[in-house]
Amino acid sequence: MISVVLIDYHPLAINGISSWLTNTGRFEITGTAGNLTEATVLMEQLEPLPEIIILDILLGKEDGLGFVPILKDMYKKKKVKLPGILVCSMFEDPFIIQHTINLGAQAYVAKSAKFEELITALEALVSGEIYINPKYKIKNKDKIWTVLTRREVEIVSLIKQNLTTKQIANRLALSPRTVENHLGRIYIKTNTESRAGLVEL
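RE: above sequence
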């Protein structure tokens, strides 16, 4: 069976996915975690390391994608092949999906997807392939956005939805000035000069 570790802030998501995968008879859940600390401790204890990691982006107030470099370092030290990393999250914006792939994930499935799509993505990982639902129309999977923080990715995503600075500030519980400061850094990192330039990313 294929060993899987689930890292998700929500117990219901962990229980649901665990049950689905276990019932297929093809996957074995070797551990679960709800935050980065738990995930790191779990991975240090597991032997052998799992073949697949299913990871959410939002782990409470933590950035789940921050676990990807930790995983890379951990597997490198043990001189074993990096696991297939599947990000399963509520976000369905192509920019965020592209960002996760560029950081090192090989598959992305929205939490709104049907279970069959999750299985399809896992099968792709087992075969060494990348899986992204074609409906998201990723423009450029090779473009590098690893320099952006999670907050900056969220802001770009909201700008691409044509939200104003005030609307973005309200959505993210920030001040408009803080949003503008983030925008200044985003323009520099992405080599753009305006909101219109960010929309085209």
